[in-house]
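Q: I'm writing up a methods section and want to include an example of the input and output format. Could you take the sequence below and give the corresponding predicted structure tokens, formatted cleanly so I can copy it straight into the document?
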Amino acid sequence: MDHGNYSRVTQFVLVGLSTSWELQYFFFVLFNFLYITIVLGNLLIVLTVISEPALHTPMYIMLSNLSVLDVFLATFATPKMIHDFLHEPKTISFEGCMTQIFLLHVFAGGEMVLLVAMAYDRYVAICKPLHYTTIMNLCKCTGMVVGSWVIGVIHSLSQLAFTVNLPFCGPNIVDNYYCDLTLVIKLACTDTYVPEVLMLLDSGLMGVTSFLFLLISYTAILVTVRRHSSVGMAKARSTLTAHITVVTLFFGPCIFIYVWPFSNFPTDKLLSVFSTVFTPILNPIIYTLRNKEVKSAMHKLKTRYGSSRVLSQKSCTRVDLLN
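A: Here is the clean output for your methods example:
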């Protein structure tokens, strides 16, 4: 097919979540609140881990990186969506669309690999506790965190490589609030069977591989926990519940979306919102509610901040009196 005969699409139109102005005003307020909560909640976890030396362990370093990924995952499209609630038409440039696709797969792919690394960390801690400090040192932890970002970038580039050069010449309406790769590919003015298969194989391979690693790790952990009933295992069971909950929240929508990747269901938008907004807001809640160490560190941070503020106010008062 001669791509030169086509005028290239320079922008896409995003349908958004609703065409009702009343609902869009409501969504504007709701998602503003949710986005601010996501940023503040996840940054609080990062700040807590950084400021508390007792949390400078592989598990909490990975947890803080998960929070960073959650902030980015919520940021790649949510501010644009909030802006679009009050503006018509909801357009995005071709370059902006490709950027959204790239960022989504970087952060989602990175988070997928990081969850596997966190599962491996818990496997070593619970199944091989005597060798934990030698197996899971800070150097290996850093390598796993960096590796999750690198794999996320490679995965995203491989997805984008066969998308950016497709001929987009006519239809430009994307039935979502961001540029979903599965919807954008279908707009190309050519037979998209091969790109669809490549995309499905790429995402499927990464998703299935990660899910199998998680399944094996958590099965081994659950068997070990069931065999022991010590106080340490009770603590491990609590942490394990939080991990499995987060994994279920992350992989559940992904599995549903990629079982029928090129079929447009009414629930797809709901699952997209859940993946990019509700999962990043639930992760910090789940980990802080289920983790005594994090709650204790947050309390210390609050006390330290309160003490510093009181001392600062007293110093200012003394200066005023002297003047």
